Every structure is written in C-alpha cells, then in structure tokens.
Amino acid sequence: MAGASRGVGRGLARALGEGGATVIVTARSSETGPRTEMRSEAIEDTARMVDLAGGRGHHYLCDHRSERATDEMIHWVLRRFGRIDVVASAVWGGNEGFDGERYADGTAWGTPFWRRSAEPYLGLMQAGPVPALLLARAVAPAMVAARSGLLALVSFGTADAYLGDVFYDSAKAAENRLALAFARELAPHGVTALGLSPGAVATERAREIDEQDPPGETPLYAGRALAALAADSGVSAFAGQVLHAGDLARRYGFTDEDGTQPERLRLAE
After folding, report:
1. How far apart are CA 262 and CA 22, in angstroms?
2. What is the pLDDT at residue 262?
3. Dist CA 168 CA 228 (whole Å)
4. What SS3 class is residue 197?
5. DSSP tally for the chain: helices H, then strands E
6. How big, in percent rounded to 5, are the helix, strand and coil portions of the chain?
7. Which residues contact residue 206 at a Cβ distance below 8 angstroms, ignoring those fewer than 6 apart?
8. Using CA atoms, how far apart are residues 145 and 90, in angstroms rounded to an integer?
9. For residue 75, what are the CA distances in angstroms to 60, 125, 132, 165?
10. Of 91, 13, 70, 12, nearest to 47 (Cα)?
C-alpha cells in the first residue's frame, strides 16, 4: 500500500490485513527516519495494525515522488515475496501545510486561479498523480507477466461536480483519468485498473482540523471497499471506472468500523 503511514492508505492496509493478506506498507514517514510535517504516524505503526487485524504487515520506506525509489521498492517486494496481487496508490501530499482554510503559501482554498501562483499546482501534481503513475509503471510488468492483478488509484470522484479549488480538482481529475488510461492498456493483459473514491474521511489531519465535528467515514471504510474488490473474481467489469466506497458497501455488504454504511458523498454544483 503506497502512502499508508496514515489516512486512507492506512485504512486500506488494515482492511486487507483483516482478510489475512500480507501487506507491504510504504510511505515517507518512519520511526527511524524522516516524517512528513513532523507528524507522529509512521509506516511501522500501520504494519503493526495489519498484524493486529490478522494479516502480515511489512514496512518499506519509500518516497513515491522518486522513480528510482519506487522501482527499487517494487523490485524488493518481488524478490522477497515473488508476486504482487493488489497494489494501491493512496499517496497524497497535497494537504501538507493546509489548515482547513489556507495552503502553506497562505493562499485560501478556492482562490480564483488568476489570483494565485501556478507553482503550488505543480506541487499537487507531484503529490498524487505523479506517484500514481510511477507506481503503476513499476508494478505493471510483473502483473502483465502474471496476467493478473488489481491496481487501484485512490482519488476523489470528479464527475458529479467541481471540487471547489482549481488545483485540487485538477489533481484529482488527473488521477481519475490515469485510472482510465491504465485500464485501457492493462485490460488485454488480464490486469484491472480502477479508481477508488472515499467520501468525507475522518483522517488524522481532518480530526485535528475539525475536532468538534470531524467527517463521519473512517479510513477503514475505503479499505474494506478495496478488499471487497480484490476478492471479486469479476472485478474486471469495473476496469477504468471511479468507484465510490459508499456504493460498494451496498453492493458487497461491508460496513464501516462502527457497523454503519455511510452513503456515497455527493457534491452539489
């Protein structure tokens, strides 16, 4: 699971652990190395959560913005474990320095594009779409050779409405388009690529920003959506689509951590 030191990536890893999977947890934050924004969460924490959930967790420190580091990580996994059945990119550094209202450069959320520098946009592309591309490129040869595999890009659905900020919206739309493109090129080789869209997730950062009324969906909800897709022999029917955790919960019957089934988040224009 790429980008799994915290947030949705951690939920993906935990849910696969519930099914007894061996899960490789990768990200930039480690107990023994650097941590993004000096946060407390680390890949070792998530690997232990996988163990506690019933799986086997392993951690690997990786900066997914680097093509070389990503390639080396995939080579290590293949040497040690022999195959990769499911890979998910939940890498997202676009909120680093964001306090719920303003980005690190002081620009407010939703500021018109002509009133802001384009430089932060390049950062957001490096924070999600580029790592997704690098990960897919690194793992695709092994999956194509095996003629099987599931590649999931965690993003946010952009079909219903504009997401409210030009940089954020276009970064998420780029990831969704990558899922479509990957699906078209991988499907003839027996590999399924798709997008996965959580709703309003109570990540560690979201709970800190809005302590009184945090979002109601936990990261585990999207994780159980991925686990259900991974267990579905007919998952190829979803190739190229952006699937919503709330919709998948009703299709497969899983629940969030508290036993509820939060509905798909729909944004109004």
Report:
1. 28
2. 94
3. 28
4. strand
5. 9, 6
6. 45, 15, 40
7. 200, 214, 215
8. 24
9. 12, 25, 17, 37
10. 13
pLDDT tens-digit readout, 196-239: 999 989 887 777 776 556 567 999 999 999 999 999 999 999 99
CA 27 – CA 202 distance, rounded (Å): 19
DSSP assignment string, 128-168: THHHHHHHHHHHHHHHHHHT--EEEEE----SSS--S-HHH
- Write phi, then psi, for 229 (nearest 5 degrees): -65, -40
Closest CA to 7 of 200, 247, 244, 262: 200
Q: Does 150 have pLDDT greater than 90?
A: yes
Choose among 46, 67, 45, 83: nearest CA to 136: 67
What is the distance of C-alpha 232 from the center of its chain? 19
Rounded distance between C-alpha atoms, residue 228 and residue 248, angstroms: 8
pLDDT tens per residue, range 2-61:
989 989 999 999 999 999 999 999 998 888 877 776 677 899 999 999 999 999 999 999
C-alpha to C-alpha distance for 206 and 30, rounded to whole angstroms: 21
Q: Output the CA–CA distances (angstroms, integers) from residue 231 to 146, 179, 210, 225, 228, in the order listed.
A: 17, 19, 35, 10, 5
Domains of the chain, start order: 7-98+113-252 (3.40.50.720)
CA 242 to chain centre: 13
Identify the DSSP state of 102. B
Cα separations in angstroms, 86 against 12, 16, 53, 210: 11, 10, 18, 33
Given a contact cutoff of 8 angstroms between Cβ atoms, the answer to whether 207 and 216 are in contact is no
Mean pLDDT of the chain: 92
In angstroms, rounded to a whole number, what is the distance separating the alpha carbons of residues 213 and 209? 9
The CA-based angle 23-29-35, given to 5 degrees, is 170
